[in-house]
Amino acid sequence: MVPRHLTLALLAAAAPAMALGASLDAVVGRALFERNWVSAPSSTQSDDGLGPLYDAPSCASCHQQRPPEDFDETTVQPGTIIRLGNARGAGDPAYGNQLQTRGVSGQTPEANPDIVWNVKDGRRAASITLYSQGFGALAQDTKMALRRAPVLDGTGLLAQVPESEILKQAQAQKRKGNGIGIAGELPWVTVNGKRVLGRFGWRATSLDLKAQIAMAFSRDIGLSTKAHPDPFGDCTARETACRAGPHGAKTGEVEIPDSMIDLIVKHLESLEPAAPKQNAAEALFNRTGCAECHATLHLADGTPVKAYTDLLLHRLGPELDDGIGEGAAAPGQWRTAPLWNVAKSLKIGGLLHDGRARSVAEAVEWHGGEAAPARARFKALNAADREALAAFVSGL
Ligand code: HEC
Ligand code: HEC
């Protein structure tokens, strides 16, 4: 159960949305999504236990869907985190799977990163330098790379796509075989000894919204859940001060009960994707081969889900390979990014997993590997068609 004092506070904050007819659960879930967690022990006597190390105090602070005020080409979009890992999929022995750049009172953040965008031949790419590293150098084989916070509209619908539909996409690509050079791989992950398809995150590492939310609480905010019971989140054994730091749960309990995660799922399910657009350029998109990966999926009852993804992993070539393995994804493999939030994403920052691409055309320029033939066809279009295709995708 969500503690009573917390429910009342959340309901007070949620009253205006309820007046608009949203479901009670979704409204409380939204208040939890927007809630700024604070360090334990706190004067409000709630079950908080932010950190000890963390990246942001709330879901909304990273997934806010408003354009930042002072945004320009040199800014890193809010909500971007630094992923750490090696090619085999292991995190750094000292810093873990993600760099935590903030700490509660008395804690030293892991490092102070400086991120610089370099533009070469019209394409932007990031370089990251770490200052004030708290635990010495990264392991020799640890790589670091940016991950931007995706727009979450429609994730509830993607969660409903049956596994059989994703399997069908993989089979269809296999049948076409070398004819198109596209061979999406199924993002199998093992959960409690069972093989299931991953679907959320840039590498499809989380099998459902609950798993993704529990991961976010652990790595991004530093709060424990049943799935990630350590109250110190991503802190490793070498980070002794973090492990000894303040926590919000009694021994044997977790800071965030499943009931709260369920409410946040309800909020995410209420974030509907923009309505599908009728646009003549969609035929061009299909003919150019974009739709081989950016496909339409279907729910069990046949309802189309125009997310423009096959939810499979594809090799997009060395230029998008950051040397990090995650879940089922080998270095260089990415889940086909859904395109139904491109318009919103462009308003708050850039495209691709790290936000490097400032436009659809720039994103296509980075499409190598299995997508190289589609990129070549895109570039071979006449200027008017190329612009129409890019404008169609930019408006999704
Ligand atoms: C510090 C910033 C940050 C915070 C805080 C944060 N997220 Fe995220 N979120 C991200 C990033 C970055 C990704 C992509 C991660 C990846 O794939 O490696 C992501 C991915 C997701 C996804 C997957 C979306 C998709 O299309 O696959 C969901 C759902 C999500 N977050 C929900 C939440 C919720 C709910 C919370 C609060 C409990 C939260 N996030 C807190 C940054 C954040
Ligand atoms: C072989 C599969 C494949 C093909 C073909 C393909 N894409 Fe992609 N696309 C991907 C993957 C995988 C990503 C995610 C890459 C990343 O985040 O680094 C992606 C990402 C994108 C993005 C960024 C979306 C976002 O929200 O960040 C855009 C825009 C895009 N593709 C447009 C296109 C267009 C236009 C075409 C046709 C010219 C195309 N793609 C063809 C697999 C493909």
* Strands, count: 12
Structural class from helices and strands?
Answer: alpha+beta
Which whole number gives the mean pLDDT? Answer: 91
Gap between N and C termini:
39 Å
Main sheet characteristics: 2 strands, antiparallel
Ligands, ions, cofactors: heme C
Oligomer: single chain
The top-level CATH class of the domain at 155-190 and 272-394 is Mainly Alpha
Query: What name does the CATH topology of the domain at 155-190 and 272-394 carry?
Result: Cytochrome Bc1 Complex, Chain D, domain 2
Helical segment count: 13
* Named CATH architecture of the domain at 155-190 and 272-394: Orthogonal Bundle
The gross shape turns out to be globular
Q: Element order, helices and strands?
A: HHEHEEEEEHHEEHHHHEEEEHHHH
Topology (elements, then pairings):
Blueprint: H1 4-19, H2 24-34, E1 53-54, H3 59-63, E2 81-85, E3 102-103, E4 112-120, E5 123-131, E6 143-147, H4 155-160, H5 163-176, E7 188-191, E8 194-197, H6 209-221, H7 240-243, H8 258-269, H9 281-287, E9 297-298, E10 304-305, E11 313-315, E12 333-335, H10 342-348, H11 360-365, H12 372-380, H13 383-394
Antiparallel strand pairs: 1-3, 2-6, 4-5, 7-8, 9-10, 11-12
The structure holds heme C (2 copies).
The site of one heme C (HEC) has 29 residues, from helix 10, helix 11 and helix 12.
